[in-house]
Every structure is written in C-alpha cells, then in structure tokens.
Design goal:
There is one protein chain. 59% of the residues lie in helices and 13% in strands. It is rod-shaped. By secondary structure, the chain is α+β, with helices and mostly antiparallel strands. Strand 1 and strand 2 form a beta hairpin.
Amino acid sequence: MTDTPETIYLIPGEDVDGAPCMVWCDDPAPSYACDPAEAVKYIRADKHQEIIDRQAKAAKMGMDAAKKSAAIMERNAKQMRAESSPEVIESERAANAMLTDRVEELEIMVKVFRGCIETGLFPKPGSPCQMKIFELVGERE
C-alpha cells in the first residue's frame, strides 16, 4: 500500500453515471478541462499540526527576540536618562572647566619650557620660577 498523500483536493467532477458531483483527487487540475481555482485544498491533520508547530516556534522566537531587544533598549534608555540628569550634566561641566584650566596651564608651561630650550636660558637656582617648575615636574636628584 502506498503512503497517504499529505494534500488532497476536492474538485468538481462527474460520478460513474456522468452526473456532476464533487470528487477527491491528489491534483487540483487533473486535466486541461479542470480549473485549479475551483479546487478545495485539504491537508492531512498531522501535516497541518507540523505547520502550526513550526509557526508557533517561529512566533515564540520572534517574541523572545522582541523581549530581549526591548530589555536592551530599556537599559540604554535608563542609562541615557541617568547620564542626562541635571546633576550629572552640572558635574561634567565642572570637571570640564577644571580640565580646561589645567590644559591652559600646561600649554603655558610648554611655551616656557620651549623658550628655555630654544634660548638656553633657565631660571636661576632657587628662584620662584625654578621652584614652580620643580613643583610641577619634580626635582632631579
């Protein structure tokens, strides 16, 4: 015996006496005279359940991915909100102001050191200028 087909069609046909009726067939248009649009497709129940199970699995995977994505987006939003609070912004502004002042001080020091190197003139030993240099860069032993 052959396996039961997964799909069968109910199509307009004729009985053995030639009277019009609906007949079962494994092809939606077994002859050129048949219109496949008139066929009603039936899928074996076990195959239909396999399709439903695959669709359910895909839907679950999609929902899991959406939940994961939503959790990541929520975490990022909370982080961005925390980083944009007025207190944090003000603290960052204060830190930036301090760093800007320090950069300006270092740029002036670079100019002084370059001038000393280029001219060969250095602060006198024990002078306030030499003491400031030692304070900033350390004293050699």
